[in-house]
Amino acid sequence: MESSGRSKSYPFIFLAILLPVIGLFTTGCTSKNKPASSEASITVTDFRGKEIALAKPANRVICLIESALSGIYMLNAQEYVVGVPSDVYRGSVAKRYASLDNRLANGLLPSPGNWDFISIEQIIALHPDLVILWASQTEAIANIERFDIPVYAVMIHSIEDVYKEMADFGTLLNRRVRADSLVSFTRNNLKQISNQKKEKEAVRGYFMWAQGINHTSGKNSTVNQLFEFAGIENVVDSEMEHLTVNIEKVLEWNPDIIIMWQNDKLMPEDVISHPILKNTKAAQLKQVYMLPGVFDCDLWTLKMQHAVKLVSNWAYGESFNQEEELEKLMEVLY
Amino acid sequence: MTRKKLTYLIFLLPIPVIVASLFVGPAGNSSFISFFRWFFMADETINSEMLTNILLQVRMPRILLVFITGGILAVSGAALQAIFRNPLVDPYVLGLSSGAAFGAALGLWLAVIPVQLSAFVFALAAVGLSYYMARKNKQISIVSLILAGIITNGIFTALLTIIQIMSDPFKLQSIVHWTMGNFHNANWDRLQMAILPMLAGLVILFVMRWKLNVIALGDEEAASAGLNPGRLKLWILTGATLAGSAAVAVSGIIGLYGLIVPHVVRMIFGVDNQRTLIINFLVGGTFLTLIDNISRTLAGFEIPIGVFTMLIGAPFFIWLLKKSNVGWEH
């Protein structure tokens, strides 16, 4: 009985200690945001519509978006990068980044996160003056901004968004002339490809993401822009950016050409001999192609122009030296 | 080690674990040595602003949130196992997790409602729905309540799937990540937001803890002891749901934690809820804090804590299961 009486009082003693301690911490330790610097001389508006103000060009940048990082390297501003997404150390892009930066080749640049899994304390420890994140990562953005670290939030839905991103990076990293020149180069290239007279009737195309044969993109997507610039009509009539369609619909659409995103499990030959898809016009004409490396054809970067050129040539049967063209483009971009 | 010594250890362990965890993290410049050099030797080479920011603004709120969440999941699990008289029950049995996941997904998708608030409200709504479906002639049977929980889980999982289908790849990824359970966005605001319902739920469960022993014997036994079993169950469910919903809203879904910890405690300390509820809180909090230390330091980036609760907790649980009695034989 005695021990029972003693144990009865444990929770109350515990709660009596716990409540004031937590109360003290939660009221006393909440961080207070400092007012924004009034000396800001560089301002851009990010994809949230928020104004990002810096007193001087950023020189300690953490960029946790692979496509945006690719843009920073195009601006030759890699010396300012102090943190990268962990993607760049993995998969097919790792080799390409290693060839662009010795620090990446030797694993010396810290990677404090990827997508939603971000280590806030590692970001603070890297002492950045600019962090670049996806605009959809609202919680992480709010958490980083609590420490008065400016966050530029990105959201790419079209090539125009890529142009804006590049121009803003140019401003923030003191590389605006280079940014404008690359944007202008890309605009001209895309204009030239889309202005080429296609004598044949417009080709109708279906895009296939790596997740599977029925994962595709609708009208409101960079894939649709890829097709438009290449002079192809997207067979998908939905407005959705990414959608899963019934394979019956693919048969009904009966595309003239199928363009595949880089895929380790499925090759164009598999699609051509697929028991259902073999009945499509694209399979019968063997007009099924896979875009080469993710790095070279990233639709969220200026490298989209390479994908456009490839698709246009596949669709309209023009002669084309893929490797030579890619080499030329990379020389301009990097 | 005797049970008495183990009890002392469990009561004393949280403080050193919490203090030691303060010096565990991926930022090498915020180690104990850096702190020691700055605090005791006034070393000016240490960036004091960064050090205090990392220790007090990043690690401290996270450690406290993890500790309280771990404690709540364990206490809620133990309380629900007692009233359901079922060892397979955890805090998510009445649809709490699927309701919270749907709420969080809705918050992420619409981007107009705060994610945590939405998760909390829908977790409460899911348990409320289960309770409403199971109630018949002002009576609640345990079997119908568990069945109603399964149905609720199904309904909210279907609604979650609809949102996932409608979401763009960015939001879809965030929704999937939320369901994995993580604390990497923990901060004082989040702790402040969740602490009130968490403590309110805990107080209800602690006040009811001796009655848990009676209700665990069955409704008739509880009635013959002069208790109202229906009202008692409602209070315990309210306490467990309030605390559990707040915990899930800030942490995401940490699978099976609320099942494993109460079993481990029962195997070591027996079935007396009056005594073990506080032990559940301390063991649950301490163990989850230790696991979170691994999840935030193993790689440069964050690994969802739910991965480790299963990878570490499950083998330990199986080992203990083979070594001792589960506690339901008594």
If you had to describe this structure to a student in words, what would you say it looks like?
The complex is a heterodimer of chains A (334) and B (330). Chain A is α/β, with parallel strands linked by helices. Chain A has 15 helices and 14 strands. Chain A has two domains: 42-186, Rossmann fold (3-Layer(aba) Sandwich), CATH 3.40.50.1980; 199-333, Rossmann fold, CATH 3.40.50.1980. Chain A has helices at 2-28, 66-74, 91-100, 102-105, 120-125, 138-145, 159-172, 176-195, 222-229, 247-253, 268-272, 281-284, 294-297, 304-316, 322-333; strands at residues 42-45, 51-54, 61-63, 81-83, 113-114, 117-118, 130-134, 151-154, 203-208, 215-216, 232-234, 243-244, 257-260, 288-290. In chain A, the strands form five sheets. In chain A, strands 4-3-7-8 form a four-stranded parallel beta sheet, with helices on both faces. A four-stranded parallel beta sheet of chain A has the order 11-9-13-14. Chain A has a two-stranded antiparallel sheet with strand order 1-2. In chain A, helix 2 (66-74) links the parallel strand 3 and strand 4 (81-83). Chain B has 330 residues and is mainly α. Chain B folds into two domains: 1-18 and 256-330, no CATH class; 91-254, ABC transporter involved in vitamin B12 uptake, BtuC (Orthogonal Bundle). Helices cover 75% and strands 1% of the residues of chain B. Chain B has 15 helices and two strands. In chain B, helix 4 (48-84) runs parallel beside helix 9 (188-207), helix 5 (96-110) packs parallel to helix 7 (142-166) and helix 13 (257-269) packs across helix 14. The model of chain B has no long low-confidence stretch (mean pLDDT 88). At the A-B interface, helix 1, strand 5, strand 6, helix 5 and helix 6 of A face helix 4, helix 8, helix 9 and helix 14 of B.
- Order of adjacent strands in the largest pleated sheet of chain A: 4-3-7-8
What general form of chain B does the structure show?
A: globular
Q: In the CATH hierarchy, what is the superfamily of the largest domain in chain B?
A: ABC transporter involved in vitamin B12 uptake, BtuC
* Secondary-structure-derived class of chain B: mainly alpha
Strand tally of chain A: 14
Oligomer: heterodimer
What is the average of the pLDDT values of chain B? Answer: 88
Classified in CATH, the superfamily of the largest domain in chain A is Nitrogenase molybdenum iron protein domain
The CA-CA distance between the termini of chain A, in Å, is 79 Å
Assess the beta-strand content of chain B as a share of residues.
under 5%
CATH architecture of the largest domain in chain B: Orthogonal Bundle
Which parts of chain B are unreliable, with pLDDT below 50 for 5 consecutive residues or more?
none
Number of domains of chain B: 2
Morphology of chain A: elongated
**Elements of chain A, N to C (H/E):** HEEEHEHHEEHEHEHHEEHEEHEHHEHHH
What are the segments of chain A in which pLDDT stays under 50 over at least 5 consecutive residues? 1-7, 27-36
Rg over CA atoms of chain A: 25 Å
